[in-house]
Amino acid sequence: MRAGPVPVSLWHRLWRITGRVAVALAVVALTLGVGLRLVPSDPAEWHADPLGAVRSGAPNDYLVLPQGMNAPADRTMAPVQVPALDLMSRFDAIALAAPRVERIAGGPQLLFATYVQRSAVFGFPDYISVRAVEGEDGAALAIWSRARFGYSDLGVNRKRVEDWLAQLGSGR
Predict the structure, then answer these.
(1) Contact status, residue 94 vs residue 164, Cβ threshold 8 Å
(2) Count of H helices and E strands in the chain?
(3) How far lies 103's CA from each of 72, 98, 121, 139, in Å?
(4) I need a labelling partner for 111 at 20 to 30 A (CA). Which of 25, 64, 94, 99 fits?
(5) Are 133 and 139 spatial neighbours (Cβ–Cβ below 8 Å)?
(6) What is the C-alpha to C-alpha distance for residues 92 and 159, in angstroms, rounded to an integer?
């Protein structure tokens, strides 16, 4: 038996279904994008001292600790010969100059601050807590950058912290 042409009514139904699926996906994407931007950032929950970071084990955070600390970290920071307040103030300026970043708690004068940076498209929030530590050899930073949602961040937190530290080292 030979197959004939597909009836027009079948093509019409397929076209209508495809259109409805596309509209549904657009509504979900819009809802997700708007919804994530409206999720509040509670400082009581996210203003966490990086020196006492309790990590989940998921690959969605990045921790920098001052050199000589006896704790697991992704990287250590050697002390620099500037006062802790100056180091923290420079870091604060770099963080706040980055796109979509705001400070949600603390500040340079407290030597402890937490920032939120949202992704460009959907507004996924990442939290970055920073503490300046003064030692005998100078000051260093403890930085804990972590994603609020998801299991993996595809290296976004590591890249952010490394970029900001590179700017700090270059004096920008």
Answers:
(1) yes
(2) 4, 6
(3) 26, 11, 20, 21
(4) 99
(5) yes
(6) 17
Helix locations, 39-80, DSSP H: 43-46
Tokens of 116: 């939120």
Q: Which stretches of 39-148 are DSSP H helices?
A: 43-46, 84-97
The angle subtended at Cα 155 by Cα 151 and Cα 156, nearest 5°, is 95
For the stretch 117-156, pLDDT in tens is 999 888 899 999 999 999 989 999 999 999 999 899 999 9
Q: For tokens 């994603």, name the residue.
A: 147
How far, in Å, CA of 108 to CA of 115, rounded?
Answer: 12
pTM over 0.90: no
CA atoms within 13 A on the CB side of 1: 2
